[in-house]
Structures are given as structure tokens and as C-alpha cells.
Fold this sequence. Notes:
The chain is α+β, with helices and mostly antiparallel strands and 394 residues long. It contains 11 helices and 14 strands. The protein folds into 2 domains: 9-263, L-amino peptidase D-ALA esterase/amidase; 271-390, ArgJ beta chain, C-terminal domain (Ubiquitin-like (UB roll), Roll), CATH 3.10.20.
Amino acid sequence: xxxxxCPGFKxxxxxCGLKKNNAMDLGLIYAELPANVAGVFTRNKIKAAPVLLDQxxxxxxxxxxxxxNSGNANCCTGGQGMRDAIHMTQLTAAGxxxxxxxxxxxxxxxIGKPLPMDKIEGAIPDxxxxxxxxxxxxxxxxxxxxxxxxxxxxxxGEVNGNLFTITGVAKGAGMIRPxxxxxxxxxxxxxxxxxxxxxxxxxAAVAKSLNxxxxxxxxxxxxxxxxxxSGFSEAIVSESGQMAAVQPIxxxxxxxxxxxxxQDGEGVTKLVEVVVxxxxxxxxxxxxxxTVAHSNLLKTAFFGEDANWGRIFAAVGRAGVPVDPNTxxxxxxxxxxxxxxxxxxxxxxxxxxxxxxxPEFTVTIDLKMGHGSASMLxxxxxxxxxxxxxxxxS
Length: 394
């Protein structure tokens, strides 16, 4: 499928030798004019050099280019790592003829290995030469690590009769948990919006999407999400009502990317939405859904297509919030498996097992205590997940 880019942006991806088999591993986003920008970054206390650099540069609220490499995280690489991150931005800025301060950088891959800067330096001129308005697919391919497919979403909207585009690209298949972004994600729009407006809309979108997914419960050192607005359209976000018109479309981009990430998780065979409702508060529901979605025992049961509902109840009970152990209902899709904390019998279990054989399904836990609710996307743990991560560096 061919994806059209977002007005005001050119993208590219090339191979520079960081990954095996001459796969693309160096990507670039270039805004034809300086764009307003907002970002969110990993909460991991150990942060890669590119994250630390971007956290400083994003304070200006302006960005014109983002250079991204895969195959090497440039994390835990000491002072040389920061010098290499800065050097990547210097080389990019020089090639594009823009200020170094307008270039951000992101890296993903193996932690603890210095970047082979000679390879990156040699490839940047070709990368810049390859920039084009429809280069989003090449860029998406260049930032992948264990991903098997690129993640791209394009949506269109309207503000006061003026059309706008939002294009999002993400990567991530492992080291994914809802603790900010847990991946790399770059979203471009031709809206006219201030950095503060972008920051507010981005925070809201991430809360509903990238902070609602888990693959393996690990938080990466390199998580970076950047939202850039080129201002190339006549769609202007100048008041809260216009932000409200944009927010659902931005949310849709992020939610769709989040779903694509979990679907393509390492070794994933099942995409599962866990829903908790009837909690005393939304905060309680969030704590319970987080505990259930991260249960390794439950995730292996999903892989085995085993309707072992006791594992769900055990997770609910250890979530650390008050529950009534005698009133819980449990559904697999629309199959009532447990009513008032008692199993509904062999026929219900047979129907639930049929649900578990589907590639996508929903687990709903109704606590019947109040109006609090929350949901999260999770997946199964398969044999392939272990194999992929057992020899990730080899």
C-alpha cells in the first residue's frame, strides 16, 4: 500500500550497515519550514543519549528535522554516546543547510554498543538526497527493529472548513509497557498549532493509546514520541473549540498505531483488550486492568487458548485496590464465564475456549462496585517471544 505524506514534510530511509542483510536502518524527517513540536519521552531512569539531547532541544518548541537510526540504541555509551548523538544532528543540519538546534535524533536497537559513526556519516548525504514527499514507507521501514511490518496511519480532518492531514509512524515490538511511550513514534500534521497546544493534545492522545498497551511489561531506555506541525494548511488551531475538533482525529491516529504495535508484538498470536468496569473509581479500574494485562500466567493461558479464569481473579485480587470477592462477573467477548464470582459451568467454558481461539477478543471484568472503568491492550506470550529475545544480539 502506498502512503501519501503530510504536506510540508519530506521523508526518507536508507541502509547504512547498522543492521544485517543491508536492511534500511537510517531514516530522516525534514520539515520544509521550521515546525512547532511537542514530545513525550521514557520515564526510565536510564535514558539514552538521544533522549537526553531531545529533552533539551524540545524546550524551544521548534524542530525542522529528525534523524533516526535503528540497530543501535546509543544508550549506556557514556560521553561518547552524547557526542555521537550531537554529531548526527550536526551532519544532518549541515547537509540540509539548517541550524543544528533544529535537529532532533532518535535511536533504537541494542543497548551498550557505541555507534559506528563512520557508517552513519557516510550515509547521510544519500539519506538527504532520498528525501521526498511520499517517503513515509521508507522511513517507517528504516526505524524497525524486531517489527515485522511498518506501522503507518494517515488521517484527514477539517477545522472551520479547512482540511488538514495527520500522518503517524511508529516502531516497537518488544520492550513495550504503558509507562509513557515505550517505542519510537513520529506524528506529522500540516495544522497551524502552537507548541503548547500540541503538547496538550499529545498528552491526551498518548494517555488513551500508547499508555494503554503492553507486550512484555518492559520499559525501554529510548522511548520517544514527537508531534510536529508544519502549518502548511489553512486549518488553524487558535481556540479550545478547534482543539476539540482535532483531538478525536489525533486520538484515532495514536490508538490505531497502538493497536498495530501490539498486533505485531514479538511472537504475538492474540490481541486482547482487557476491560474493567464497575470499579469504585477510574483509578482503581486502571490499577486492576494494569495488573491483569501484565500477568504472565494469564498471557501464557491466552497463547494456550486455555480459559483459566482463576488467573484473572488472582490478578484482580493482588492489584492492591478494594474489591468484593463475591460479586465479580467475567466475560470473554459476550460469553459470560463467571457470574458473582462463580463459574458458569462446562458449556460456558466451552464457549469461552472458542473465543480464545480467535486472533482478537475482549476480556471484560465487571466488579459491580461503582462507575469506574479502564481498558488496556495486551497480548499472549508465545514460544516465539522467548526465542526472539533469547538471541536478540546474535
